[in-house]
Amino acid sequence: MPLYCESRILLATMRGGTFKILQSTGPVIVRFRDDDRAQSIQIGAILLFAIFVIALSLYQATVVPSQNADIEYKHSQTVQNQMTDVRNALFRTAASGSTRPASVKLGTGYPSRVFLMNPPPATGTLRTGAYANSTIRVSNINATNDETADFLNGSWSASTKYLVYQPNYHEFDGAPALLYEASVLSNHYPDANATIPLTDQLLVRGNTITLVTLNGTLSTTRAGSVSVSPNPLSAPYQRVQVAPETGNSVTVTVPTRIPADRLASRTGLGQNPNVTVSQAGANRVRIEVSGYSTYTLQTARIGVGSNTVDPPAHYLTVIESDDDSVTVEARDRFNNAESGVEVTVNGSNPFRESAVVTGVNGQATFHATNRGNWTAVLEILGGEEQKERVAVSGSGGGDRGDRGDRGDRGDGSVDRADIAFVDSTSGTLKTVGPSGTITTYAAGGNVETVGSTVNLDADSAIEVTFVDTSGNIKYIDSSDGSPTTLLSSVSAKKDGIAAGTWQGSPMSVFFANNNDEDGLYRKAPGGERQLVATFPQKLRAVVGIGDIDGDGSDEIVAVTNGQKIAILDDDGSTYVSGQQPASSNGLAIGGVADYNGDGQERIAIVDGSNNPVLVGCGENPGGKYKCNSKWGGTTTLSSAGQAKKAPFGKGDIDGDGRPELVYAENINSPAELYAVSVSGDTVSDETYVTRSDGTRIKVVVAKGISEYVEPLTPSLLGSRLSAG
């Protein structure tokens, strides 16, 4: 490398430590020998950078996809759980009639990476779809109830859809779609044309057939979450008893991609000897159930997404008819009442009305212009654009005993079969007596909750206690022109009151109130309101009085705001159990009694599956019962007809000296009054409670049914009244 200088300089070479001096008066040219000491450092740096780039590329090409595939797989498992929640939400909505939302995260993202690249977030699609034949059908059935015989005569069918989640992953090859149809959630592999059930089926359980159909349009694709809010288009489902038209088998045909053999082997269907599963064509399976004389059919329609369609009125049925009036109800294909439906008279009209629009309960009432013989045809425009008609008639002779004999025994006491309810047609307070006689009370429609049926004020008449819509506690007997107000200074809790005596008190009404929610109070006619006890938790209702721990003294049973059964012991101590009644139309709890004659008094409740249950205390050493946190002696009466999740009562319907459970049966709408006798741990007898002419009694479920309280002996009654 040359160096040019204009002056004399001293230069030294740098090789071998020897200096060579050059001197000149002119330009001096100095040349350095080649120096390559830094080249190895540069080459090393380049090689290291190349190795880093290659390693980064290999990591990007192999490790990143593997890690992303693992993320996508875990997301697939999460969505599987979330779709199970959606499936369960659909059935909860069908059972309750209330929306039960669920959320699904359709896609997933990837973690941030330095010097590396990620694909965009993976998306997913949730949508509804339908098969060429999307009809659910039940064949070879007839309704056992005359009211629904026209509705279920031979077969029942409805259209439905499926719901499918389809992932759009970048790396997880072969990820299954998640398919909900025919009550089952499945892994669906389109490429392999295979569908594997992930959950059990709910179509056939014993002799109960449950069909929940889907309606509406849903189609959304995104990486984030989407909320699925089931819309109860026709729910809650109503239980209808049906019988085979011929033989003893019923056939259910459903649209599904699950092959018949896999539906049988991967769900409980294949373990039921009374069930045969076979293929009924492309994407259709036939389920034949046999071995039962009667079946319970419950159906509902649930909407998802947009463009949902409420099922129209499908048929008309008579709810109640006498010489003065007739009440009919418009129902849809799923046997649920339809409001806003115009019912008209076809032909000659014996009524004051020519047309009536059904109310919120789906009912319309027509009033006859005279009490003579009359006939008429009522009709609606059905869902198939054809007239659905029902013939009605009246034939003189009174009003079916609504003011008949009250059932007094003649010895000053009242027959224990007298139980109170609110009539679903008239909305009035009534009692049914020992021979089916009906007594109407002047309380009108101002009844929020029916309390006990009891001789409260020491006269010879039976009174019905109740809470009115303003929270006032009242009582009335059939001779009163209006109710007597027992307490109006506080607003009583409306979920339950009880009458009886406790710790030597006079006959009183026991209640909880909104002003002092943890206090249990009592009030007797003519006496002052008294605080009986304070509970550790706020109270929602008082249920009844009885010796549930078998120590010879009564306890008071209540329910907390947390819906747990609470006990006030005879020694003044209080405790809260883990037992919990269901709640849909008020608290599903009844009275306290020795229902099965074994010497132990139990509390009657309805569980979450609509089964009547007797809740008793556990037996401790020495044969004593103790109601603590470990309760026992509980009997589920699964063989009984299912009950509405609503208040119910007790009464000696069959006159055997032992009370029966009396509740609103969970089949037809409006519900019918049902009584169950218990022997040991099983149901010994069950029957509908009817009027004297044999017609069934229909009730407003949420108002509840009274429990009968045994009257005091005359001497004991007098002493307790004098005590205040």
Q: Explain this structure to me?
A:
The protein is mainly beta and 724 residues long. Strands 5, 6, 11, 12, 15, 16, 17, 18 and 19 form a 9-stranded mixed beta sheet that branches. A 6-stranded antiparallel beta sheet has the order 10-9-8-7-4-13. β9 and β10 (194-197) form a beta hairpin.
Note the main attributes of this structure:
724 residues; mainly beta; nine-stranded mixed β-sheet; six-stranded antiparallel β-sheet; 3 helices; globular; disordered N terminus
Task: List strands and helices in order, with pairings.
Layout: E1 2-5, E2 28-31, H1 39-96, E3 102-105, E4 123-129, E5 135-143, E6 153-159, E7 162-168, E8 177-181, E9 184-189, E10 194-197, E11 204-205, E12 208-215, E13 219-222, E14 225-228, E15 231-244, E16 250-255, H2 260-266, E17 275-279, E18 284-289, E19 295-303, E20 313-321, E21 325-332, E22 342-346, E23 355-357, E24 363-367, E25 373-381, E26 387-395, E27 419-422, E28 429-432, E29 438-440, E30 449-454, E31 463-467, E32 473-476, E33 484-487, E34 498-500, E35 508-512, E36 519-523, E37 530-534, E38 539-546, E39 555-560, E40 565-568, E41 574-576, E42 589-593, E43 602-606, E44 612-615, E45 618-619, E46 625-626, E47 635-636, E48 649-651, E49 660-664, E50 673-679, E51 682-688, H3 714-722
Parallel strand pairs: 12-19
Antiparallel strand pairs: 1-2, 3-14, 4-7, 4-13, 5-6, 5-15, 5-16, 7-8, 8-9, 9-10, 11-12, 15-19, 16-18, 17-18, 20-21, 21-24, 22-23, 22-25, 25-26, 27-28, 28-29, 30-31, 31-32, 32-33, 34-35, 35-36, 36-37, 38-39, 39-40, 40-41, 42-43, 43-44, 44-47, 45-46, 48-49, 49-50, 50-51
